[in-house]
Amino acid sequence: MSGTIAGLVPGAMIHELKLATLANNLSNMGTLGFKADNVVQLTALPESGTQGYTDQVTGARLPGASTSLLPVGIYTDFTPGPANTTGNPLDLYIDGKGFFAVETPLGTRYTRNGSFAVDSEENLVTQEGYKVMGEGGAIQINGKQVTVDADGNLIVDGAQTGKLKIVEFEDRNALTKVGKNLFKSVAGAAESTPEEVHVEQGAVEGANVDAVRMMTEMIETLRGYESYQKTIQTLDSVESKAVNELGRVRS
Amino acid sequence: MNRSLSIAASGMQAQQLNVDVISNNIANLNTTGFKRGRADFQDLIYQTLRPAGVSAAEGAQTPTGIQLGLGTMPVGTQKIFLQGNLEQTENKLDMAIEGDGFFQVLLPNGDTAYTRDGSFNVDKDGIIVNAQGYPLEPAITIPADSLSISIATDGTVSVVQEGQVEASEIGSIELARFVNSAGLSSRGRNLFLETDASGSPTIAAPGENGLGNIAQGYLEVSNVSVVDEMVKMIAAQRAYETNSKAVKTADEMLDVANNLKR
Lengths: 251, 262
Hints:
Number of domains of chain A: 2
Number of strands of chain B: 22
Strand content of chain A: 25-35%
Radius of gyration of chain A: 25 Å
Structural class of chain A: alpha+beta
Number of domains of chain B: 2
Distance between the termini of chain A: 29 Å
Order of helices and strands of chain B: HEEEEEEEEEEEEEEEEEEEEEEH
Oligomer: heterodimer
Structural class of chain B: alpha+beta
Shape of chain B: elongated
Helix content of chain A: 10-25%
């Protein structure tokens, strides 16, 4: 009886998760190098039993549905964002595949946000102050004229001072977001150098969030959520009839 | 649910800041030596609801996890120190820097401030001062009987005094250069102050150590481009609007949930 209503709860929760993801995409429309997330509803994951799920921590079989096991996946859409020209010589845009490697206190992280600066020790850094990695370590910039060629070579006042380290992953699903425009690779992910690197100077990559698609998905999410409400209300009224009217003795 | 509300609110706040920065750029369209700003944003931390690669069923692994982003936040408003256009003026004490570097002026509290605004004048004692009356560093005094002033590209100031044919050197202008000029703090009134992020200045004669040359009789106009700022403003306004729609949707969904129980 109430099991039928309980069975609808995960569906409604997926819609809440969808809206949160859409809201996150929209709030990051101004974040450079941001990659939108998509909630993909999967057919319920095959479970060996007919009902219930396995708890990830204890391994016990539990009845019902769990939030952590909603039949959804959140995929990051790695389509390149638009190149916004800024004219700033330390703004870099990767046309095509690849990520900039940056050194953070927690290890190497990857980003498509090429809005860089120079710190007081003459290192090329991100806006957060993390060092941008070159093929031979941190990149030093001290000069008047900074040029970055298409291959990612940094030329300061006519002399080459380094080459940007640009990496690509065979399986981009191996990248997880850690915030601050950075991605982290899972242990053991195969890192490679893209065959063709094309770095554009004086441009940054905007977010790849498509506002129109987000709006339509938001409407869809709201209406989908509403239909769960209606179904729950219908089931509730059926049960109400069963409880209150079936057994009524008419006088 | 409340997640969506606060996530969308962070987006609205970010766009608000973006519009603030753009408005300040537009307001300073005619400010000599003004450098435009840009607000940079980053995504907030992600809440991992399910890590990628956990086994969902016997032998099967989920290809992706569930990671939920929690919104956006500003990372900085950086100044873009691109050269502004040079505008010719008739004033002998107007100077523009062609290239990198800042003029140094002495504040009343004894600190040195840095500026790209080269509209200088002479005070009652003949000292070269900027528009606010702060003396140029190192101080240069123009003799009262000077007939003409000339400033060379390397900063040498010479005057021709009454009764003399040849010009005599009375001082030279020095410029300051920062490794990370974007790290300077804006003090307002076209002045910048040194910070830990900017590093200490390298002081040298114009044209040396990567510093630009001085152009006498020119002023550097603001490097703001109206068209660029307008386009950015439209984009920011629309992004603000879309985020407000997300707030509205979250609100409607909460309403739906509240109405489950009749």
